[in-house]
User: Fold this.
Amino acid sequence: MAVVFDRPKALIDVPFHYCPGCTHGIVHRLVAEAIDELGIEGRTVGIAPVGCSVMAYDYFACDMIEAAHGRAPAVATGVKRSDPDNLIVFTYQGDGDLASIGTAETVHAAARNENITVIFINNAIYGMTGGQMAPTSLPGQVTQTSPYGRDPKACGYPVKICEMLSELEGPEYLERVTVNSVANVRKAKKAIKKAFQNQIEGKGFSLIEVISSCPTNWGMTPKDALKWIDDHMIPYYPLGVYKDRTGGIDKFAKKEDK
Assistant:
């Protein structure tokens, strides 16, 4: 019998600890597939900070390093600069990590165009700590710390990472994707693989933002959570490429040309 679908070699054959319906597992597979297809497992180092992905070292077959909350881009910078010609370094971060406590590390790594790959999981909530409002929670979104819905007058507006980083001169490639359908999973795979390929070619900082679901803390079934992405997340966080120097999408350069 021909095998048409198999576990990536860069993904260890163990059960995930994630909640039923969580899309972390899908993204893990896409990262592992990209590592396999590019033949870089022996050169790859992943950085996993605090959050739902805190135990990602149990799942990826490549070398993994645990970082303090929010500090993954700083750790990744040090690892990459220690052996820039050989190592392929990626971070795997949630929104509470990357867009809150780690905002400074994210922005400055992007501004320096560090040659690393960042996988950013945006599920608009703090998942591991019980469903509190995150910097990416939508206006009006009900969470454990915004039981009447997020009020922008009191809490400010959500942080849009791709839009914010696209205003910097430094980054090479920024794209927002999602994994709530087969078609979207395929697009996300293409973006993640390109982000790794950019690093192999020495192009610089690439960040892939993945709009994801959190059925447990959203209080929804997995099916309803995937639909909520379409109905609420994507309208607020539009999918697409926000910066790609090779592809000619560079908002900073367009402004400078005017």
Notes: The mean pLDDT is 93. The beta strands are 44-48, 63-66, 88-94, 117-122, 173-178, 206-211, 240-244, 249-250.
